[in-house]
Amino acid sequence: MFDSGVGGLTVVKEVMRQLPREKIIYFGDTARSPYGPRSAEEVRLFTRQIVDYLIQYEPKMIVIACNTATAVALEELRAYVSIPVVGVIHPGARAALSATDTGYIGVIGTDGTIKSGAYEQALKRLNPHVEVISRACPNFVPLVEKGLFRSDESWRIVSDSLDPLRNVPIDTLILGCTHYPFLTEPIKQVMGSSVQLINSAEETAREISTILHDKGQLAHNDVVPVHQFFCSGDPDIFQQIARSWLGEQIHAVPVVWQMPQII
User: Fold this and answer.
1) Is 198:92 a contact under the CB 8 Å cutoff?
2) What is the pLDDT of residue 224?
């Protein structure tokens, strides 16, 4: 499982809850986060490099726990490896369509995810009559990556970023970046109780479970798995955020490599 940084830990937490016997190997590309402002070519290069690193552990599946990387690289990675590759966009879209009563769905995400139109396309494929209102919130990821998601600053930034959505008639809001569930409380307060927030982690974990079950690959032993965490940036900050979010004493191993160059 990988993400541009710590955001994918929201998916890790849900997979650990639903599939407690499965071992997770997680890579957070914290040195190059955020992916949202980067070009599609950069994101594709980075994701290919991360997958090349993770394949050495012989995983049963690759989970792109990053909306920007899912939007840009999902199909390419599915063609690149021989194991299943799961993204977070379609599971989130399905969950939103199940939750909405009015058919008006909001999507917030990084610049890259919103510009790609990936959520609108996924939603429209499932229900062409749904109305989708999208907004980029580029200031959210840096807050989370710095561990400031519980700070007064985070409440101010969330309020300013979501202010244009307050008067839009949505009843469901997709948190279209795996970093955003760290900011659930301020987002809830700004949007109000009439708007249901969709965190794609739950639906993604269910999709992982279904695929592994269908392939006869679900872990059945009673041994508690020892998860592994890697990051390309500061391991101390990563560990602090991961331990706070997951409630476990994880150890992050820093990975230093040659950054691929755009030619």
Assistant:
1) yes
2) 87
Query: Is residue 104 classed as helix, strand or coil in its secondary structure?
Result: strand
CB 254 within 8 A of CB 231: yes
Give the phi and the psi of residue 2 in degrees, each rounded to 5.
Answer: -145, 160
Mean pLDDT on 57-78? 97
Q: What are phi and psi of 198, to 5 degrees?
A: -110, 115
Read off the tokens for 205: 């974990």
Q: How confident is the prediction for the chain on average, in pLDDT?
A: 94
Name 27's bridge partners: 2, 230
Instruction: List residues forming the annotated binding site for substrate.
Output: 3-4, 35-36, 67-68, 178-179
Mean pLDDT of 101-105: 97
Q: Which pair of structure tokens corresponds to residue 98?
A: 């199940």
CA distance 102 to 97: 10
Judge contact between 252 and 229, C-beta under 8 A.
Answer: yes
* Cis upstream peptide for 34 (omega within 30°): yes
For the annotated catalytic residues, the residue numbers are: 66, 177
Beta strands at 62-63 and 25-28: parallel, antiparallel or unpaired: unpaired
- Which position has the token pair 């479970």? 209
Q: Are 163 and 253 in contact (CB under 8 A)?
A: no
Q: Which helix (H) or strand (E) holds 204?
A: helix 201-214
